[in-house]
């Protein structure tokens, strides 16, 4: 964490000097007034400068980027991060060699990193932020795969007349499947079990 | 590997200076014993072990290229 102690004729001037030194704006620092200063008689006798201490508040997004770089670096993967922020949603797009190691089987490593990054970012964020990690367009490819899977299993459920339980998935992946089949009137979908074992069941509409 | 565990855990806890990782090597396996400040236990385990599971997933992914099987234990 960066901090400086600055002085000035008045508190206001001291703060301005601190901001200039830290090269930042007032909303990104925390100010403690060490000494209010004294004007003195005619501004000469017994005057004392104002002293403030300014501490730069960590930026949640910078901390999250640093976390991702550090962790993947220690895993032996050098990455570049592209950050997109839309309100409370923050997306980090990772790129680099050996990125497959960060995605893992069915994205489980990427999902775990995403969860950990979400924890880190919200230690610093004032408003709750939602983190999405993506690499090599993985989320889009996974979404396409899930929609295909949903259609295939819906047909199977209709043909056999039986319910089909899918393997456990995180909530946003379940949502993709629910959404994909919401317009199929002959099929209904619901989720069963509790996280982390919560999974989708695809059933023909008339049974159950 | 030890450094990786520290890099993941330290930003998650309130007392990073209390994060310790001990290594126990055996024939076929390496066990990393992670200990944190008592007040941070909940932070590294999480609701229904969600955080612990995520840490393990990342650590095991990094260790997949190694010869020995890796385990991560969280101890008090």
Q: How is this structure best summarized?
A:
The complex is a heterodimer of chains A (208) and B (76). With 208 residues, chain A is an alpha+beta fold. Chain A contains 6 helices and 9 strands.
Describe this structure in words.
The complex is a heterodimer of chains A (208) and B (76). Chain A has 208 residues and is an alpha+beta fold. Chain A has three domains: 3-56, Defensin A-like; 60-136, GMP Synthetase, Chain A, domain 3 (2-Layer Sandwich), CATH 3.30.300; 140-204, R3H-like domain (Ribosomal Protein S8, Chain: A, domain 1). Chain A has six helices and nine strands. Chain A has helices at 11-22, 60-74, 100-103, 108-124, 138-160, 171-181, and strands at 3-8, 29-35, 50-56, 80-86, 89-95, 130-135, 164-165, 187-192, 199-204. In chain A, helix 2 runs antiparallel to helix 4 and helix 5 (138-160) packs across helix 6 (171-181). Chain B has one domain (2-75): K homology (KH) domain (GMP Synthetase, Chain A, domain 3). Chain B has helices spanning 2-9, 41-45, 50-63, and strands at residues 20-25, 29-35, 69-75. A three-stranded mixed beta sheet of chain B has the order 1-2-3. Chain B is globular. Chain B is α+β, with helices and mostly antiparallel strands and 76 residues long. In chain B, a hairpin with a 3-residue loop joins strand 1 and strand 2. At the A-B interface, helix 2 and helix 4 of A face helix 1 and helix 3 of B. Chain B: Belongs to the KhpA RNA-binding protein family. Chain B: Forms a complex with KhpB. Chain B: Its main location: cytoplasm.
């Amino acid at each position: 964490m960066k901090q400086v102690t600055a002085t000035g004729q008045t508190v206001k001037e001291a703060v301005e000097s601190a901001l200039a030194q830290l090269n930042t704006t007032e909303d990104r620092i925390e100010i403690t007034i060490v000494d209010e200063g004294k004007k003195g008689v005619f501004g000469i006798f017994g005057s004392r400068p104002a002293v403030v201490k300014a501490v730069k508040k960590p930026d949640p997004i910078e901390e999250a980027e640093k976390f991702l770089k550090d962790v993947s670096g220690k895993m032996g993967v050098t990455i570049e991060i592209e950050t997109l922020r839309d309100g409370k949603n923050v997306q980090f797009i990772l790129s680099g060699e050996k990125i497959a190691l960060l995605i893992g089987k069915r994205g489980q490593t990427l999902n775990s990193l995403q969860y950990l990054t979400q924890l880190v970012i919200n230690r610093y964020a004032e408003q709750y932020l939602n983190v999405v990690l993506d690499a090599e367009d993985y989320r889009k490819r996974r979404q396409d795969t899930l929609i295909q899977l949903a259609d295939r299993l819906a047909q199977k459920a209709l043909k056999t007349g039986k319910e089909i339980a899918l393997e456990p998935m995180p909530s946003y992946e379940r949502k993709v499947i629910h959404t994909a089949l919401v317009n199929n009137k002959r099929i209904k979908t619901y989720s069963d079990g509790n996280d982390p074992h919560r999974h989708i069941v695809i059933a023909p509409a008339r049974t159950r | 590997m030890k450094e990786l565990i520290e890099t993941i855990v330290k930003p998650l806890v309130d007392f990073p200076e209390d994060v310790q990782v001990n290594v126990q090597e055996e024939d076929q396996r390496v066990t990393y014993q992670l200990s944190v400040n008592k007040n941070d236990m909940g932070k590294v385990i999480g609701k229904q072990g969600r955080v612990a599971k995520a840490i393990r997933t990342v650590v095991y992914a990094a260790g997949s290229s190694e010869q020995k099987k890796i385990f991560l234990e969280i101890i008090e």
